[in-house]
Design a protein that fits this description.
about 140 residues, mainly alpha, Four Helix Bundle (Hemerythrin (Met), subunit A), 5 helices, elongated, Metal_cation-efflux_comp, transmembrane helix, Phopholipid_MeTrfase, Isoprenylcysteine carboxylmethyltransferase family protein, transmembrane
Length: about 140
């Protein structure tokens, strides 16, 4: 499903007759904001994957032999790889200067939020310290959510 949503983000229409692209006067600002969002997203995603090390799995279920990681980007948010994907999706949307693409990025955000909730049920079962960690650290947006 994630893959299909990313295809939507990159290849779906960016404008319609009633929802045009942003004005060209916003191009310079959009390049700066997009660069920042994509840079933050890449940093979060890559550093989180590296921090997980052998705990990293393509599936949302934690490995049986895994350990709870609470440092690095995991000290800022509980799902930093998802945070990275979300930042990059919004960065791409700003780069595309498209309200529709921002809508697609929002669908990705909602999907990953729902997915993280399901994943957290498994994390609570697997790691005794996860409940306390969940009380201290926000889900997807540092200090906010």
């Amino acid at each position: 499903m994630q893959f299909l949503l990313l295809l939507l983000l990159f290849f779906a229409p960016r404008e319609t007759a009633s929802i045009p692209l942003w004005s060209e006067r916003w191009k310079a600002a959009s390049l700066v904001v997009a660069g920042l969002l994509i840079g933050v997203g890449l940093t979060f995603g890559i550093s989180a994957a590296l921090r997980l090390g052998r705990n990293l799995t393509p599936l949302p279920r934690p490995k049986e032999s895994g350990k709870l990681v609470e440092t690095g980007p995991y000290g800022l948010v509980r799902h930093p790889i998802y945070t990275g994907v979300i930042c990059m999706a919004y960065g791409w949307s700003v780069l595309a200067m498209s309200w529709l693409t921002i809508g697609y990025a929002t669908v990705i955000f909602v999907f990953l939020d729902i997915k993280s909730r399901r994943e957290e049920r498994w994390l609570v079962e697997q790691y005794p310290g996860y409940e306390e960690y969940r009380k201290r650290v926000r889900r997807l947006i540092p200090f906010v959510y």
